[in-house]
Amino acid sequence: MVSENKDMLIKVPAVTLGFWVIKILATTLGETGGDAVSMSMELGYLVGTAIFMTLFVAAVFCQIKAKSFNASLYWLTIIASTTVGTTLADFATRSLGIGYLGGTALLTLLLAAALFIWYKDLGRVDAGSISTPKAEFYYWVTIMFSQTLGTALGDWTADTAGLGYLGAAAIFSTLLLVVVALYYVSTVSKAVLFWCAFVLTRPLGAVVGDFLDKPIAQGGLELSQYSATVALATAILVLVVVLPQRAATQSH
To answer: TM segments (predicted)?
Structure first.
C-alpha cells in the first residue's frame, strides 16, 4: 500500500518512444513560439524571457501541487520550459554579447551544477525517483537549464560552425542514435543517457524550428512563426490525447 501511494506521487511520464516524439515537437514549438514573441512581436528577448519565465514558474507550481500525474499539465510545463529556454538563451548569447560558444559553455556548467547538487542532495536523478516536491523542483530546474543550453548549442552548431539548419539537425539526430545504441548495448547509467538525450533533443528541435521559420536566404523555409507554432501545438495536443500517457514507476 505504501509503495502504491509513492507511485502515485510520481508526476512525470514514463519514458517511451511517444515521450521523445512529443518532446522533440515541444522543443521545436519552443523555438518558433519564443521567436514569435521576442522577434515577430518585437518585444525583445528580455521581455519575452520575463513573460515565458512567469508562465514556466506558474506551471511548475501547479505541477508540484498536483495530486497525481496529469499529462496535459506536464507537457504544458515542458512547452513553457522550451519557450523560456529559447528567449533566455537568445538574451544571454545576443543581448549580453557572450556569443553562442560562451552561452553554451556557461549553460553547460549550470546544467552540470544542477545535476550535481540534485544527486548530492537526494542520491538519484532518474525519473523513477521524482516522488517528492524537492525532487520535482530539482527536475524542473534541470530541465530549464537543459532547454536553454540546447538552444544555444543548436544556434552555435547551425550558425557559428557553419553547418546550417539541416546539417545541424543531422548531427544531433546522429548523436541521439548513438545514445539509443548505448542504452541497449552498454552499461552506462540509464539516468545519464536520459539526460544526454533530453539535452540533445533540444538543439534538434531548435534547428528544425529555425529551418521552418528563418528566411530562405538564410537556409530556412520562411514559414510564418505563428502558423508553425499553431501547427506544432496542434500536433502535440493530438499526440498527448492519442498516445497512452502513464506516470513513471518507482525504481530501486
So the answer is: 12-31, 43-61, 73-92, 98-117, 137-157, 163-185, 192-212, 224-243
In which domain, by residue range, is 40 found?
Answer: 7-242
> Considering the entire predicted model, what is its pTM?
0.88
Which pLDDT does position 150 carry in this prediction?
A: 82
Scan for cell 540546447, then name that residue. 150
Asked whether 137 and 196 are in contact (CB, 8 A), the reply is no
Q: How far is CA 252 from CA 5, 37, 54, 123, in A?
A: 15, 43, 35, 12
Q: What is the pLDDT of residue 252?
A: 52
Task: Determine, yes or no, domain membership for 22.
Answer: yes
250 belongs to a structural domain: no
Count the Cβ atoms, other than its own, within 10 Å of residue 121: 10
Give the pLDDT confidence of 3-43 residue by residue, as tens digits.
Answer: 444 444 789 998 899 999 999 999 899 888 888 888 778 88
